């Protein structure tokens, strides 16, 4: 019997919507506080969405990290965890699942994705070496830099175009990779890192063919290829549905092919596998032995690596479920729905829709706000004020100042509205779309932000800002006038 896939259910009378292939069996109550309270909450949080309290938030679209919905089978598996410090049966189950899926003999557990990055950078990055990437992720870059290396982003130029119909904006430019190796010498390349579902450019995928070409170049030059598989689920879905040559492959076959092309795979299991944890996988005994000794130093013994055994059981089941097209299509289909609806009415969003979430282009949305007043940060604050939806700034606020104090203006100013998998309903997505449209119509009321407390490191996590004028009071008043006593 052929099982009908979520993405292929057609509606007879047209106008179909993505149809869920799961039902909800556990719920968490949400509250939507009035705009006046949201204004106060924003002030208390210093206009930084990281500092908001959950009680004031209606839809939490900050991230998909550690907050994807878990399945009944994941929860059931958590009850059978074996918490032996060493030699736990839980570890063996996870290791076997990873062997089955990636074909990698060795698995080194770590407490989350950045812990893997710390360890890989300590082992392979030396002063003066370079790590070419399709694009950086904040934590992956920090670890390379902390170990004396530099990062080179070799994304194809088209990957940075906000509006596009290119299916694989996350592709690495292989010509740029070849020239970099020629100029710097293969021995100066610590490893090449390919990030699935490229986070900071809007959850954009790379093609399997691109990974194949990058892998060939790496193998020819004796350079390690490291795959960051944190956002693999989305990337798998896009390869399956957008790459013509892969349409007859199963998700499991695509995964296995990607793994065979890579020397090391690491992942944040806060994303991949819908639980909390991480790990490093390799088929090479030699690489395994080089990496292994740092696991007990930073993470924990080799059979848990800082993770709770319950989470490890959930990851094993979650990875297995990731091989199901119905499971991995839910995020991309909901995101596509949101992006297409906004795009059609002229709200500036990153296109085509990627994984992870819907990304609003604050540079265009708020084109009257200079980058020195953080348009993406201002949009995040305004969005929360008018909706109770919490997103994450991905722009200049997330950069760090130069040593001389000058600002580093980001390439893109984005507000990321993450859609954790299987968490929100389509009516909640509709609500977010409605409030975004209203905000777009009233965008001229939104002003910029200035720092009042600016930490030197990771200012986007802890920094506090204030509006440059009374624009938030004005916006709240307009909201009240237009929505009456609705929240
Ligand atoms: N790699 C990618 C592509 C990521 O998106 C993340 C985390 C990490 C590595 C680090 O993993 O959080 O488990 O240490 N991204 C989160 C986000 C934080 O919100 O996008 P971690």
UniProtKB/TrEMBL annotation:
InterPro entries: ArAA_b-elim_lyase/Thr_aldolase, Beta-eliminating_lyase, PyrdxlP-dep_Trfase, PyrdxlP-dep_Trfase_major, PyrdxlP-dep_Trfase_small. It comes from the Bacteria. Pfam families: Beta_elim_lyase (PF01212). GO terms for molecular function: carbon-carbon lyase activity. Its cofactor is pyridoxal 5'-phosphate. Keywords: Lyase, Pyridoxal phosphate. One of its GO terms (biological process) is aromatic amino acid metabolic process. The modification N6-(pyridoxal phosphate)lysine is found at residue 271. The keyword tRNA-binding does not apply. Residues 60-429 form the Aromatic amino acid beta-eliminating lyase/threonine aldolase domain. Gene3D superfamilies: Aspartate Aminotransferase, domain 1 (3.90.1150.10), Type I PLP-dependent aspartate aminotransferase-like (Major domain) (3.40.640.10). Belongs to the beta-eliminating lyase family. NCBIfam families: PRK13238.1 (NF009709). PANTHER family: BETA-ELIMINATING LYASE-LIKE PROTEIN-RELATED (PTHR32325), TRYPTOPHANASE (PTHR32325:SF4). This is Tryptophanase.
């Amino acid at each position: 019997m052929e099982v009908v896939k979520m993405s292929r259910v057609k509606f007879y009378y047209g106008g179909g919507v993505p149809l869920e292939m799961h039902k909800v069996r556990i719920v968490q109550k949400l509250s939507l506080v009035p705009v006046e309270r949201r204004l106060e909450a924003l002030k208390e949080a210093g206009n930084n969405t990281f500092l908001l309290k959950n009680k004031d938030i209606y839809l939490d679209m900050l991230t998909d990290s550690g907050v994807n919905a878990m399945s009944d089978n994941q929860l059931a598996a958590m009850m059978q965890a074996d918490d032996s410090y060493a030699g736990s049966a839980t570890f063996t189950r996870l290791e076997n699942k990873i062997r089955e899926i990636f074909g990698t003999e060795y698995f080194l557990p770590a407490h989350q994705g950045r812990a893997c990055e710390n360890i890989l950078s300590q082992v392979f990055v030396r002063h003066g070496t370079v790590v070419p990437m399709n694009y950086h992720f904040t934590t992956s870059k920090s670890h390379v830099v902390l170990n004396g290396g530099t990062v080179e982003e070799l994304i194809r130029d088209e990957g940075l175009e906000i509006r596009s119909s290119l299916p694989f904006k996350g592709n690495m430019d292989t010509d740029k990779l070849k020239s970099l190796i020629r100029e710097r010498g293969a021995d100066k390349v610590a490893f090449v890192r390919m990030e699935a579902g490229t986070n900071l450019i809007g959850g954009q995928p790379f093609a399997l063919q691109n990974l194949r070409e990058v892998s060939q170049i790496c193998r020819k030059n004796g350079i390690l290829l490291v795959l960051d598989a944190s956002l693999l689920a989305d990337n798998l879905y896009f390869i399956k549905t957008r790459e013509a040559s892969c349409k007859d492959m199963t998700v499991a076959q695509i995964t296995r092919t990607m793994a065979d092309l890579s020397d090391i795979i690491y992942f944040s299991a806060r994303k991949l596998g819908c639980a909390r944890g991480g790990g490093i996988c390799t088929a090479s005994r030699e690489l395994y032995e080089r990496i292994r000794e740092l696991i007990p130093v930073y993470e924990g013994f080799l059979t848990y690596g800082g993770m709770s055994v319950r989470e490890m059981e959930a990851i094993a089941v979650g990875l297995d479920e990731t091989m199901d097209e119905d499971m991995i299509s839910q995020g991309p289909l909901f995101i596509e729905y949101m992006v297409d609806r906004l795009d059609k009415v002229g709200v500036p969003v990153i296109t085509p829709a990627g994984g992870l979430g819907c990304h609003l282009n604050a540079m265009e949305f708020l084109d009257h706000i200079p980058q020195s007043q953080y348009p993406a940060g201002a949009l995040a604050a305004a969005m929360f004020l008018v909706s109770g939806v919490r997103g994450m700034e991905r722009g200049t606020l997330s950069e760090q100042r130069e040593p001389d104090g000058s600002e580093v203006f980001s390439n893109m100013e984005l507000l990321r509205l993450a859609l954790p998998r299987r968490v929100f309903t389509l009516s909640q997505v509709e609500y977010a779309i409605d409030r975004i449209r209203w905000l777009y119509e009233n965008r001229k009321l939104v002003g910029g932000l200035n720092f009042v407390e600016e930490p030197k490191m990771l200012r986007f996590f802890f920094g506090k800002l204030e509006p440059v004028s009374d624009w938030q009071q004005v916006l709240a008043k307009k909201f009240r006038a237009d929505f009456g006593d609705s929240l």
